[in-house]
């Protein structure tokens, strides 16, 4: 079996406490007027701007950082969920108001609320404003709804990323992916098919800072399958061992077993999706990196389709890169 010579040859919120109100933004996040007449927002994915005065920050800053800048699972080095920048309200300028993601924290007597709005000063933009009568109550309010707040920003980033990568994606989907039953997918132009079998494909892309692989495979779906999450991991491990080799003689790739793989679940247009995030390593050699795998459960056609992004990028941070690859995996539409 031919193996791929891998990377290593190169160096709404429902609120909650009494007296707290929520003012929701309109359900319609964007209009043609906003898209064409508002200034463009600034900042890349996972960047978040905080508007918070110094006194308040001294009281609640640690709690905010602990939640928003929590290290992301599935990366070889600690990298924060969001890259934060903060400035007091009296320092806000027209430029800083154009940040794509803004969290505003303020003390307002006799008020307690979480308010979120889209495209306030720029497009696209999400602004979340939290007010409370004291620093202690604001901290509790944020803590009670931090998961919802984080999810809002992540979904906002995903939508922005989807629009950005679409401009640099292949016009036509590679034939190899169509053969697996993929109708559409945003995939960067640099990817080329290197292995194509009836139920298994590998595509490769070389960039200045990384080598990336897209590995996809299809299997029958049986509803009574027990512990399907472990089965997907086992399949990926076997496919990597048999199809990827390292730079060192007899070396091969496998999933890192000493660090737990993070498993999450989502739903896209009624299709159940299992998400795996973790690390891979080189057995009998050196090198490794992160991977993310999305498995689409296609009950209608009694199959499941797994698509995994595998990245070797030893000289660069990987959080933003993995977000871009995840956006590509999320864009999959099945036949």
Explain briefly what this protein structure is:
The chain has 335 residues and is of the alpha/beta class. It contains seven helices and 18 strands. The chain starts with a strand and ends with a strand.
Give the number of domains.
2
The residue-averaged pLDDT reads: 89
Separation of the first and last Cα atoms: 30 Å
User: Poorly predicted ranges (pLDDT <50, ≥5 residues)?
Assistant: 6-19, 24-28
Strand and helix layout:
Blueprint: E1 4-5, E2 21-23, H1 32-37, E3 47-51, H2 54-68, E4 83-87, E5 101-107, E6 113-118, E7 126-132, H3 135-144, H4 146-166, H5 175-178, E8 182-184, E9 192-197, E10 200-206, E11 211-220, H6 228-243, E12 244-245, E13 252-255, E14 262-268, E15 271-283, E16 288-298, E17 303-312, H7 319-330, E18 333-334
Parallel strand pairs: 1-12, 2-6, 3-4, 3-5, 5-7
Antiparallel strand pairs: 6-7, 8-18, 9-10, 10-11, 11-17, 13-15, 14-15, 15-16, 16-17
Verbal overview:
The chain is of the alpha/beta class. The protein is 25% helix and 33% strand. The strands form four sheets. Strands 9, 10, 11, 13, 14, 15, 16 and 17 form an eight-stranded antiparallel beta sheet that branches.
